[in-house]
Amino acid sequence: MKKLLLSAALAVTALSGGAALAADYPERPVMMMVSYGAGGATDFQARIVTMTAGNEDALGMPIAIINKPGAGGRVGWNWFATQADADGYTLGAYNVPHFIAQSIKGGVQYSTDSFEPIANWGADPAVFVVKADSEFQSMDDVIAFAKENPGKLTFSGAGLFVGHHIAALQIEKAAGVKMAYIPTKGGGAAAMKSVIAGEVLGGVNNLSDAFRAQEAGNVRILGVADLERSAFLPDVPTMKEQGLDVDNASVNFRGVMVPKGTPQEVIDKLAVTVPEMFKNGRVAKKMKAGGSPMHIMTRDEVIEMWAAREATLKELLAGL
Amino acid sequence: MEFIYYFGDVFSPLSFMLLLGGTIGGLILGATPGLSPTMAVALLIPFTFQLEAAQGLILLGAAYTSTVAGGAVSAILLKIPGAPANIATTLDGHTMAKKGQGAKALQLSFLASAVGGVFGVLLLIFLTPVLSDWALAFGPSHLFWLAILGVTVIGSLDSASVVKGLLSGCIGLWLATIGFDDIMGAQRFIFHPSLGGGINIIAALIGLFAIPQVLTMFAKGRQVDGAEVIEVQKHSVLAATRELIRWPRALTIGTLTGSIIGLIPGVGGQIAGLVAYDQSKKFSPEKDKFGTGHPEGVIAAESANNAMVGPSLVPLLTLSIPGSPTAAVLLGGLLIHGIFPGTDLFDNHPDVAWTFINSMLIGQVLMCIFGLYVAGLAARVAQVPQSVMAAVVLSLSVFGAYSVQSSMGDVYVMACLGLGMFFLERFGFSAAPLVLGLILGPIAEANFTQGSMIANATVGQASYFFSGPLNLFLIFVVIASIAYSVWMELRSRRTTTKEEALA
To answer: Where does the source fall among the domains of life (chain B) (predicted)?
Structure first.
């Protein structure tokens, strides 16, 4: 039945012609799949950046968020790559480096070739945190401890093959030390809890969550795994400034994509409209209030970023 | 006593309207199968975009409170637990409803919810600083032992035979391994794409509890021509209050267990009801009556799951760590207004913090009032002829399983588990231990993996898992719990053989 409908839809599309399709698109509300649960950072941000979609100067139709959580995002992206309709009415949120790292590691039905990026809305760098009363004052202290006690410096992060894990691998590689990365179940919040409770000596976490925890007086942020300092934390040096050769490969980029096979006219229209939608002043205000750093990138920039990430991650994960 | 100062804010016209709306809406959402409290709160977040921070949180707090209690309605009347919190409620609640005591069961459950809920929120108000230390005290090794403690409960929970209880618990533990392993990302038993994310707990609950009952009803409908009409007994609220006071033990155990367990991040909400049910069964002189429509069972389960609401927010409000999925959604609701939980919340936005907490306190009372009003009407559901009822429950089950994450895969999972459970029940297995295995499996596994990784890097497995007062205490409770089950099993065997010998 679905096939029949699909072929009927295709026939209609062919008759009406691509140009007409782009002019009319979207005619009905659009759905956006988020591969993490309701209330998570990705879900939260996706809801904010799409809240103005119904405006006349944006899509003119609202975007509804559908959550398909499970297995660190694999369930949602598998669904998006294999089952989602490529008609422009099904958008998806991506998290880089997560989905790229998972596709390199294998066992999933998607890769960067399965999706067409539309635009990027946010960039949440990974940071290194320690408990507020920790003896570590800088990354140097951490590395010095790790050198004296190889494999004994425990630090938490949200699972394997996510941004936190990539940052952890990069730090270890840059400093040439072995540390004990402890992946937690339950995302960044669980990893942060283990730092605050003193179960581990340190942790890699999202800048946005760490910023909140530091404001609350629970943790101290020692370094940012990005190319530049963050506007939220102007006093915290980057890893590079502290002598660790760590680039922005672990930065958690969030944005919008569509499945491969979506009509080119629709992709073009979305690629023009969506970044403008992200620039809306109300969106920026809400994102800033929530401590979520914005980083708007166009389709071409995202294509480039995906390719660069894939190359770095392939090299970094080769040994695992 | 700061909270009293902000009580007025709850009663400003708009706030109180929101509180009423949130409570009534929450009861309806909670009573809808498949809509867990987490999802109900997530659905309401967009509405708070347009509201002031304090008012938005009133809406969310009221909805959270009443969805947890509303889950009892479908658990008691339809045997569909709305969320893991309501599993224990079905055990005695639904049996009572089948006897025509639906009104009594619902009244007891709402009264017990209110008592537990108010106690939980009072704990949140007065003991938050102490409690936040306690919430952090549970590391991976402690959570592992806690999950093991839950496993020892499996054998004695709602089952005539300890062996059968343990067996169905094992099936649950096995089902819990399906899907991508959350820590390592390994694939286990994924034969179909819809199993990739593991078995969704809500879909499983609906399948395991509701479907066997639907099948039984269809089977019966053929044999008995006219539908058997159950006479729904009227039950006054006053009588229900008297009944509640008659069982102080269940109420105390439920409230205390719920508050303590609710505090533990990541575990609390799901098992509070079941543990409280099991504890009050163990301490009750009439333990044989549990499972046959005994009021104590309903009281313990419902007071526990609402007592958990207040304490479950302690880690969120003080440390900015969401301890439960619902707390994570509430965090989103705070962040959208630029408020960071933690010291910032209480120092710079006390009006928001205290109005939110007060609204939960008053929400508990309002929830109780509306719940009691609904109880009398809702209990008439039992008068619906069985064949019609079966069709209604079946369609609600499909709807509920689908709505969890808009996926047909969950509906298939629900149907398969339900069919399997129908046959298991014929052999005397019951669903509650199976579900407990399904819930505890991932908790035990993840914490063991994580704990042993930390242990290997630091002090070694043995001293990590077997030292420290909290570890030792939990191990002691585990041993005591096993010993108790064994002793009870032996004693009941001896008495039955004696009876058989006499006969």
So the answer is: Bacteria
Chain B residues with beta carbon closer than 8 angstroms to that of A198: 136
CB atoms within 10 A of CB A72: 29
Distance to chain A for B147, nearest Cα, Å: 15
Q: How far is B258 from chain A (nearest CA, A)?
A: 22
- The answer to whether the beta carbons of residues B56 and B62 sit under 8 Å apart is no
Tell me the C-alpha distance between A73 and A80, whole Å: 11
Token pair listed for A37 = 């649960």
Residue B126's contacts (CB-CB under 8 Å, 6 or more residues apart) are none
Instruction: Quick: pLDDT tens for A117-169.
Output: 999 999 999 999 999 999 999 999 999 999 999 999 999 998 888 889 999 99
Rg of chain A over all Cα atoms, to the nearest angstrom: 21
Angle, in degrees to the nearest 10, between helices B53-77 and B325-335: 160
Task: Give the residue from A31, A42, A63, A75 with the most B CB atoms within 10 Å of its CB, the best one to mutate.
Answer: A75
A39/B38 Cβ within 8 A: yes
Indicate the residue of A78, A161, A215 with minimum beta-carbon distance to B342. A215
**Tokens 């709305």 belong to which residue?**
B82
Interface of A with B in 277-316 (CB under 8 A): 286, 288-291
Interchain proximity A40–B344, CB inside 8 Å: no
Q: Count of domains in chain B?
A: 1
- pTM given for the model: 0.85
Percent of chain B with pLDDT over 70: 94
A30 and A89 Cβ atoms separated by less than 8 Å: yes
Does the pLDDT of residue A20 top 70, yes or no? no
Tell me the residue range of the domain where B206 lies: 2-502
State the pLDDT at residue A1: 45
- Classify A291 in phi/psi space as left (phi over 0), alpha (psi -120 to 50) or beta: left
Q: Report ipTM for this prediction.
A: 0.81
In the numeric block, which tokens belong to residue A279?
Answer: 């620039």
Distance CA B290, CA B281 (A): 7
Residues from chain B contacting residue A68 (CB–CB below 8 Å)? 197, 405-407
Q: What is the pLDDT of residues B32-56, one digit of tens each?
A: 877 778 878 877 877 777 788 888 8
Contact state of B182 with A185 under an 8 Å Cβ cutoff: yes
Position B221 scores a pLDDT of 63
Q: Cα(B315)–Cα(B309) distance, rounded to whole angstroms?
A: 12
Chain A positions in Cβ-Cβ contact with residue B45 (cut-off 8 Å): 47
Terminal Cα distance for chain B, rounded: 65
Predicted local distance difference test score (pLDDT) of residue B51: 84
Q: A15 CA to chain B: closest CA distance, Å?
A: 32
Relative to beta strand A30-34, strand A63-67 is parallel
